Predict the structure.
Amino acid sequence: MNWLLLAGSIAGVLGLAWVARMLELGGVAIGSDAEARRIAEESLTGFSAEAAVVSSDGAAALVRGDDGSLMLLKVHGANIASRRLTPPVTAISIGDGVTVATGERMFGDVHLLLSHEDRDRLRAMV
Amino acid sequence: MNLPNPVDLAVPGFVVLVLVEMIVARMRDRRRYCPKDSLTSLALGFGSTMAGLLSGGLIFALATWIYQFRLVDMPWVWWAFVLCFILDDFAYYVFHRSAHRVRWFWASHVIHHSSQHYNLSTALRQTWTGFLSLAFVFRLPLFLIGFPPAMVFFCVGINLIYQFWIHTETIRRMPSWFEAVMNTPSHHRVHHAVNPRYLDRNYAGVFIVWDRMFGSFEPERDQDRPRYGIVRQLDSFNILWAAFHEWIGIARDFRTAPGWRNKLNYVVREPGWSHDGSRETSDTIRAQWRAAQGRPVEEPLTTDLVRSGKT
């Protein structure tokens, strides 16, 4: 590989990413409790969703299974990533919502924007 | 004989096709692309090229060394290229199947599956550690048979170029005769999917006939839309994490596993294997899913397609 090809490759990588941004590609949100439950069930075989609380910006959701286990959903790019939470689950009210800890450094803690009513629902789930 | 590197020549075509697919995504479904995800894929592809430059000389030297023990002299004629291409594609099938069934190989290959998107930029998300996981070993028999290294690497390049265009949701199905013989976007969507039905299926590079011959074929179904990525989604656009996370996982498990047998199993068993059964492999996920569907564990997944007259 010569320097021209190297520089061209780097320019190509950055250029394509820039085009994707200019075209406003991507974008996803969890639209409803039902959608959160469906995504959770698809993410984990055998998980049967019973209830869900969705962040008001659609960026995250907490889903409870019929066995009491919990799944945390989080928007990742234009998709949703999920994690099954290992008890005991830590959920702390901060500002306008609740932050749920996953115990995973790369996944991170997830903040859900919630009304007071939804905060109570979430606490009941945890 | 001096042959060009076909991949170098194809790069401008890759760029143009990615642009076209982005425009189609803009018109049909913007969620098919995510700028951060594409940047990650393209950066990983660039890193893979750099890693290939470092290891390529060693692999070519090894190939040349093995070639001196060749059984026959394959001539530089068209049919030798065709034969080489077919056998190389079979070697790719064996490599690829191993890459999904042996964690040491998977640690390199997982990078290609780590995106939750399926588009042409995903095709460029390639390994940085192929040399470490000994991926080149699977092609060594070709040199021993007697195919010149330059011919083999030319065929490898053509194979790689073919696999680029099948990473798309833009093309739904190809003509049935083509779907029967060749790997297609539909077949390869199945391969990248994490739906239990689709896990560890369709390993083909160019010819899907290998999967049909060796029982690893699964057709795509419209009622079970593929969901892409890995069973435990990465949830990160960090390219270093994408490139090395499974290697880090192997190191952690090796360090903490009780006994040498378990330590070794964390390296050579299938991804998801654990000594205490606390994790899930594709086999256990599929078995759990089949049980939920009320299917016998060993019943072929395609059976109900045959029953319903869809094949």
Notes: Confidence is low (pLDDT under 50) at residues 303-311 of chain B.
